[in-house]
Specification:
Number of domains: 2
Number of helices: 4
Helix content: over 70%
Number of strands: 0
Distance between the termini: 42 Å
Shape: elongated
């Protein structure tokens, strides 16, 4: 019985139907492009944004932040602010 269950599980994971179902569920779920309501929007993401800003400030004060690094950090800050405000990033298509 355990061997049959193991073979069935392996067969299911490798079948094209399972992978296409997984792709559809990812595309259909809006929370893959938005923050879910609750502690992610209210606590975790603002904390990550604050840590990112403090790290940028510290690296800038020590002249250790290259211009391309600064641009990447500012892009992340912009995306995090959009997510905190309830917006959406990425593409849904």
């Amino acid at each position: 019985m355990p061997v049959s269950v193991g073979f069935g599980w392996i067969h299911m994971k490798r079948s094209p139907a399972y992978t296409s179902e997984l792709d559809i569920s990812i595309e259909a779920n809006p929370y893959y492009y938005k923050l879910p309501p609750g502690y992610w929007r209210e606590a975790y993401t603002p904390l990550y944004l604050e840590l990112l800003q403090l790290t940028k400030r510290l690296l800038g004060a020590q002249n250790l932040l290259a211009e391309d690094d600064r641009a990447r950090i500012e892009e992340l800050e912009r995306k995090m602010r959009i997510l905190i405000q309830g917006g959406q990033i990425g593409t849904t298509s």
